[in-house]
């Protein structure tokens, strides 16, 4: 079995970045969860107003409040190794709950699932680029000083 050589960028593998971009991304994840929890809480007004409050049952509003609170609380554990997995599980649970509560909740969660897909795609891209030495921050201060620096 032959191993293919690691493909690096034109400047080589580079150094470890001073600030880990994957750790910095946890702030984006937490912010997204807070925005999603606010949006889910706003779905309470939709449930109250639709069909003269026909969907305003203790089970429905309790489900929406629990989902909004869970999203908000998960924003505080994004630096933990299991934080992202918990968010993905919560997205599936929220989408299924939206099917039973009201289609508008399912639509809200579906829109945020697309946001999460794009954030995870970005995270994967950053990790791959870091592995190949293609992040700018991996090469800052590693080259020869220019004439301006002398």
Furnish the topology, listing elements before pairings.
Elements: H1 21-49, H2 58-74, H3 83-101, H4 103-131
Helix pairs in contact: 1-2, 1-4, 2-3, 3-4
For the structure shown, list the relevant keywords.
150 residues; 0% strand; mainly alpha; 63% helix; elongated
Account of the protein in words:
Pfam families: DUF4233. The chain crosses the membrane at residues 24-47, 59-77, 89-122. Keywords: Membrane, Transmembrane, Transmembrane helix. This is Membrane protein. The protein has one domain. The chain is elongated, with a radius of gyration of 22 Å. The model has no long low-confidence stretch (mean pLDDT 83). The chain has 150 residues and is an all-alpha fold. It starts with 20 loop residues before the first helix and ends in a 19-residue tail after the last helix. The chain contains 4 helices and no strands.
Given the C-alpha coordinates, what overall shape results? elongated
The portion of residues forming beta strands comes to: under 5%
Q: Mean pLDDT, rounded to whole units? A: 83
The major beta sheet can be summarized as:
none
């Amino acid at each position: 079995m032959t191993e293919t050589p690691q493909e690096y960028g034109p400047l080589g593998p580079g150094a470890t970045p001073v600030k880990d971009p994957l750790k910095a991304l946890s702030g984006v994840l937490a912010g997204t969860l807070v925005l999603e929890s606010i949006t889910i809480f706003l779905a309470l007004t939709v449930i109250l107003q639709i069909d003269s409050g026909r969907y305003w049952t203790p089970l429905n509003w309790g489900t929406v409040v629990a989902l909004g609170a869970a999203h908000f609380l998960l924003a505080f554990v994004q630096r933990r190794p299991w934080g992202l997995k918990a968010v993905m599980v919560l997205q599936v649970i929220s989408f299924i709950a939206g099917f039973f509560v009201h289609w508008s909740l399912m639509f809200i969660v579906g829109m945020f699932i697309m946001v999460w897909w794009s954030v995870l795609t970005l995270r994967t891209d950053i990790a791959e680029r870091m592995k190949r030495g293609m992040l700018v921050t991996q090469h800052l201060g590693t080259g020869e000083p220019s004439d301006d620096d002398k």
